[in-house]
Amino acid sequence: MKLKFIHNGHPCILVKPEKPSEKKYWVWRAEFFDAFNQVDRALLEKGWHIVYCNLSDRYGCPSAVTDMKKFHDYLVSEYGLCEKADLFGFSRGGLYAFNYSVAYPQDVSTLYLDAPVLDILSWPKAGKSEEDAQCWEECKLCYGITEEEAETFQGSPVHHLDELADTKLPLLLIAGDSDKIVPYADNGQKLADIYFRRNLPVKVIVKPGCGHHPHSIEVPTEAVNFIAGNRIK
Questions:
Q1: What pTM was estimated for this model as a whole?
Q2: Residues 6 or more apart in contact with residue 64 via CB below 8 angstroms
Q3: 6-56 tens-digit pLDDT
Q4: CA 141, 143, 148 angle in degrees (round to 5)?
Q5: Mean of the pLDDT values across residues 88-105?
Q6: 29, 78, 200, 212: which could form a disulfide with 181 (CB 3.0–4.6 Å)?
Q7: What keywords does the record list, in alphabetical order (predicted)?
Q8: Are 76 and 26 in contact (CB under 8 A)?
Q9: What is the separation of C-alpha 35 from the centre of its chain, rounded to a whole number of angstroms?
Q10: Residue range 48-67: average pLDDT?
Q11: For residue 233, pLDDT beyond 60
């Protein structure tokens, strides 16, 4: 059953499973609800709720993270969902998911990043399209920075990788090694390297020859097992 509602002025979606898990586990999509949703659907069948709050075009900025916290607390109190979400950040959704996980690690069970943007200078600033240029203008406004200030900006996730690692949150990272839009080497790989170096709980799936799309993996078993496995430890 799919519920649509408004919370704090933002359109939201909550999908209820046919047989909810005892502790009401849930997937929280930071962006792009229902896109490349193989993992989401598999977890829904296992009893997870799927939720989304539309905070688009805010690039994971501090005020967006504040609104995410309000949304989280509302879901826990109003619908009785588990305190800890499995937080999914696809593409630019990685900015939201990463920043929320650093700010509120107690609210996260597993962080799943898929071809994530972790550096706003990598994208949208370095993007080649007109849409990317528009996104960059929006992004600067959201973070309150000028073009000149952007070059020394220290507020992207890549500047806070150790802070996320310090939380010891389990990390699932999926990306293509031929991504020209959000290059893996400049984004996800930097986080993966720190997790491996510090021997933290991480599963990385790098897809040979794959670009930014398609996201996720066709057969979601590995991802589902990693996420569900962290729930029963």
A1: 0.96
A2: 55, 58, 96, 99, 142
A3: 999 999 999 999 999 999 999 999 999 999 999 999 999 999 999 999 999
A4: 80
A5: 98
A6: 212
A7: Hydrolase
A8: no
A9: 13
A10: 97
A11: no
> What is the percent of the chain where pLDDT is above 70?
99
- As a whole number, mean pLDDT of residues 191-197 equals 98
Mean pLDDT of 125-140: 91
DSSP the chain: -EEEEEETTEEEEEE--SS--TT--EEEESSSTTTT-HHHHHHHHTT-EEEEE--TTSTT-HHHHHHHHHHHHHHHHHH---SSEEEEEETTHHHHHHHHHHH-GGGEEEEEEES----TIIIIIT--SHHHHHHHHHHHHHHT--HHHHTT---SGGGGHHHHHHHT--EEEEEETT-SSS-GGGTHHHHHHHHHHTT-SEEEEEETT--S-S-S-SSTHHHHHHHHHHH--
Do the Cβ atoms of 198 and 169 come closer than 8 Å? no
CATH class of 2-231: alpha beta
| Angle (nearest 5°) at CA 17 between 23 and 34 | 115
With tokens 């996260």, the residue in question is: 108
Q: At 114, list the tokens.
A: 């898929």
pLDDT value for 211: 87
In this predicted structure, what is the pLDDT of residue 129? 87
Residue 185 has phi, psi (to 5 degrees) of -65, -30
